[in-house]
Design a protein that fits this description.
Layout (H helix, E strand, L loop, with lengths): L1 H33 L8 E4 L2 E4 L3 E6 L5 E6 L20 E7 L1 H4 L9 H11 L4 E7 L5 H10 L8 E6 L5 H4 L12 E4 L5 E4 L8 H6 L2 H9 L2 H4 L1 H9 L10 E2 L2 E2 L6 H22 L2 E6 L3 H6 L9 H14 L3 E3 H12 L4 E2 L2 E4 L1 H16 L7 H5 L10
Parallel strand pairs: 5-6, 5-7, 7-12, 12-13
Antiparallel strand pairs: 1-2, 3-4, 8-9, 10-11, 14-15
Length: 392
């Protein structure tokens, strides 16, 4: 029996060694050199706000062969500015841009994002603009309020621009079982339909973060789109949710089955924008909204109301008008350019804005702000001294 056991043990050692060697070759050679996946952007919570690991950078590799660079600054936000200083120079106009991945800009190089385009356009027009962006992948409208309170106010902006996307509303009151969804502020409703806030938890790395550290996992799970095919399985048995991917229900990159509760969509929009409006009046900054266009409608030659997501554009317009908040609906911006040039505004492999769309959005916002006669003198009245501490 002993020779047989020794033979079995030797075979097991050989098998385990072969598996380890194969895994090492896959990790460091195949997916480390030849088929490299996207780099990792780690997350942390600071001052109760989830953000990216400060002072890091990442390269994203896209199906069409191009790459995009993300540079995370000292405060944990993707920006060409290595650090956001609390104090600023006399006469500078400070603009804060809040949003999700469209503001973060993970699919374009950091200098091609619309906040940087906005800053360059304003400076060319003679405005000493300083644009700070606060973009977080997956963040909904409710989280924008949290970021405004806990992060943005500390920098004493003259203008706060909130960039809205069609999934911002339902995801403000729906809890998504994902890697960091519980780290976002959410809005609940009592039996009378009155909104109340559900405070976020600090982000805590888990098993998903450890898996994402491996090149092999990132390539096989993300680059092959396995995360979409197995979304329902992972949601149910890993996160404890019920999310699934069904292409036939996707419009403007949004699952239209999730956004039809326009009563609660309006409630959350009305509550969050009212809170933002109150902060604008208290602090003296200008609150401006921008809303993504319904690009599907443009390409199909149909009206906004032909699409469920188009109802959200109308909803936002009505709430913004009620609260007297300036709103730039980017549908008109995209429609004008598409009528002349027939160029699409997203990537062939992803619905996020491409370089063209980022340029058009930055230019459109700059035109809106330049019509404000007080813009160039805004910071002189608000001061360039010590900033207020973040508010909770």
């Amino acid at each position: 029996m002993r020779p047989k056991l020794r033979h079995l043990a030797a075979n097991l050692v050989l098998l385990v060694g072969s598996l380890i060697a194969c895994l090492l070759i896959l990790e460091f050679v195949v997916f480390g050199i030849f088929l490299k996946p996207d780099d990792v952007l780690a997350n942390v919570s600071r001052n109760g706000v989830v953000r990216y690991q400060p002072n890091t950078r990442a390269i994203f590799r896209h199906p069409d062969g191009h790459q995009s660079l993300v540079t995370i600054n000292a405060q944990g936000w993707n920006s060409t500015k290595p650090e956001y200083a609390l104090a600023r120079g006399a006469g500078a106009v400070r603009i804060a841009v809040i949003g999700d991945s469209y503001v973060h800009g993970g699919f374009v190089n950091v200098e091609e994002g619309f906040p940087e385009v906005l800053e360059r356009d304003l400076r060319r027009a003679g405005v000493a603009a300083e644009v700070l962006r606060f973009g977080m992948d997956g963040a909904p409208l409710s989280q924008y309020l949290h970021v405004l309170r806990r992060e943005v106010r500390a920098f004493k902006p003259d203008v706060v621009l909130v960039q809205l996307i069609h999934n911002d509303f339902d995801e403000s009151y729906r809890f998504l079982k994902t890697r960091y969804a519980s780290s976002f502020l959410k809005v609940g409703f009592d039996q009378a339909g009155q909104p109340f806030e559900i405070e976020p938890s600090d982000f805590t790395p888990g098993m998903a973060d450890r898996l994402r550290a491996f090149n092999t996992f990132r390539y096989l799970y993300y680059k092959t789109n396995a995360y979409l095919r197995f979304k329902r399985f992972v949601s149910r048995y890993w996160w404890g949710g019920e999310e699934e991917y069904a292409p036939e229900f996707i419009s403007s990159a949004v699952d239209v089955r999730k956004i039809t509760d326009h009563v609660n969509n309006r409630r959350v929009a009305r509550y969050v924008l009212s809170e933002m409006h109150a902060l604008a009046q208290q602090d003296g900054f200008r609150l401006v909204l921008a809303m993504d266009g319904v690009r599907d409608a443009l390409y199909a030659g149909k009206g906004l109301e032909s699409y469920e997501v188009g109802k959200l554009n109308r909803l936002v317009g009505e709430v913004a008008s009620e609260l007297d908040i300036p709103l730039l609906d980017l549908h008109a911006t995209f429609a004008e350019h598409y009528a002349r040039n027939r160029q699409r505004f997203e990537f062939a492999y992803d619905w996020h804005w491409n370089v063209l769309a980022n340029r058009l959005v930055g230019e459109a916002i700059a035109r809106v702000l330049l019509r404000d006669p007080g813009l160039s003198a805004g910071s002189a009245q608000r001061g360039a001294g010590t900033a207020r501490p973040p508010q909770g």
